[in-house]
Design a protein that fits this description.
Elements: E1 4-8, H1 12-24, E2 30-35, E3 40-41, H2 46-51, E4 60-61, E5 71-75, E6 80-82, E7 87-89, E8 95-97, E9 100-103, E10 108-109, H3 117-123, E11 126-128, H4 132-144, E12 148-154, H5 164-176, H6 178-181, E13 185-190, H7 202-215, E14 218-220, E15 225-229, E16 234-237, E17 242-244, E18 247-251, E19 254-255, H8 258-261, E20 271-272, E21 285-287, E22 292-293, H9 306-323, E23 336-344, E24 347-354, E25 362-369, H10 370-387
Parallel strand pairs: 1-2, 1-9, 2-5, 9-21, 11-18, 12-13, 12-18, 13-14, 20-22
Antiparallel strand pairs: 3-4, 6-7, 7-8, 10-19, 15-16, 16-17, 23-24, 24-25
Length: 391
């Protein structure tokens, strides 16, 4: 009897899982990929949109049938995931049953969780760089700024791409050029974490702080925002302090989507998974990427990053096949990964290591070079070419 495997979400994790499942499962089995629009953006390129090096169209990901041979694409808003009946409610698109499920729905932006943030964005005194249109709009706001202070604010944790706010600060300073080097415009980073990328360890965090200081970028750790006031262009923090800005570049609060929360698999909405197999507490259900809560040996969560979603998706596909009784590799997620920190002027640093190492992640930050910038360019080309195949 043929089986049906459903993959939720057409980001890097979902696309990779669906493709690998098609390679692994018999031809008679059905692979269904559900997404609300199949019109996405390559996340690793968003900061290049912010810098003005890419247009929104250049970083679009629109996977066609030609890019996903043998995979049934269903366009629909996922309303509910019913683990008891093993069905997915897609609203007007109907209900789809499954024998095994891979959840790759990512993380959503929850603007209203920080008081005043939505109003600041609507008033034009703030911008965000976690969507393509948002990054392009923020680029234009920075371009128009002549004097004052750009505050890069991490509203809360966790958030996608642990290097993003610091990379944004470097690229904003690079865009400002002489306005920054002459101190007409300052750039300061505020984050609830004591150091950048805390899961990577204090050596990496301190190295990034030193790199920012060398550029003239201010770093303010341990600062938890409680309110944004667009009328006074200020941010209030949990310790009672207030900081002003002329332009706010914000990492918005992130949250699991309602469909993810509907599973009931995690008390906070994020889905706990086995670190090696990506299995959830429900048999036959796996989760990958930003929607998960994967705890490392030191008790901290694995960072939310596309490079991990891709590796996890391959593992989940093989584990699904094994769950269904097929002879598939017993692959495991290793926690090995890397990310780039663009500094501007064609240079990038590279953080890489083993995040599942015990007792704590073993991560190093490689010195900035043009070679790492070119590596990221190649990664971008590879991913865009893989998913934007046209018939």
């Amino acid at each position: 009897m043929s089986k049906t495997v459903v993959v939720l979400g057409a980001g890097v994790g979902g696309l990779t899982a669906a493709t690998e499942l098609r390679k692994t499962l018999p031809a008679q089995d059905r692979i269904v990929l559900i997404d609300r629009g199949f019109d996405g953006t390559l996340g690793l390129s968003l900061l290049w949109v912010l810098r003005g090096w890419r247009s929104t169209e250049q970083v679009a990901v629109r996977p066609s049938a030609a890019a996903l041979p043998g995979v049934d694409r269903v366009t629909g808003q996922i309303e509910r995931i019913d683990l008891d009946s093993r069905t997915i409610d897609c609203g007007p698109a109907g209900t789809i049953g499954y024998d095994a499920l891979v959840i790759a729905l990512g993380a959503s932006l929850d603007l209203d969780r920080l008081t005043g943030l939505s109003a600041a964005l609507e008033a034009g005194v703030a911008g965000q760089f976690y969507t393509a249109d948002g990054a392009a709009d923020l680029h234009n706001k920075v371009e128009a700024l002549e004097t004052g202070r750009v505050m890069v604010l991490v509203a809360s944790t966790p958030f996608k791409c642990p290097a993003a706010p610091f990379e944004a600060a470097f690229l904003l300073a690079d865009q400002l050029g002489e306005k920054f080097t002459s101190t007409q415009v300052r750039v300061d980073v505020f984050t609830p974490d004591p150091l950048p990328m805390p899961v990577a360890g204090p050596a990496v965090g301190n190295a990034l702080v030193d790199m920012m200081a060398a550029k003239g970028i201010g770093f303010h750790g341990g600062t938890s925002a409680t309110r944004v006031d667009p009328s006074t262009r200020s941010v209030e923090f949990a310790d009672g302090s207030t900081e002003t800005f002329d332009l706010l570049a914000v990492v918005p609060p992130h949250a699991p989507g309602a469909a993810v929360a509907s599973t009931g698999l995690g008390p906070n909405g994020w889905i706990p998974v086995d670190a090696g197999t990506l299995a959830t507490a429900t048999a036959g259900v796996y989760a990958v990427g930003d929607s998960t809560a994967l705890l490392l040996p030191n008790g901290k969560p694995l960072p939310k990053a596309a490079i991990f979603a891709e590796a996890q998706a391959l593992v989940a596909a093989h584990q699904v096949a094994r769950h269904l009784g097929y002879d598939a590799p017993d692959t495991r997620f290793t926690g090995k990964g890397a990310c780039y920190v663009e500094l501007g002027d064609g240079l990038a640093a590279k953080g890489e290591g083993e995040f599942l190492a015990s007792p704590a992640p073993q991560v190093s930050l490689r010195e900035p070079s043009a070679a790492y910038h070119h590596e990221k360019e190649q990664q971008e080309r590879d991913w865009l070419a893989r998913w934007n195949i046209r018939a």
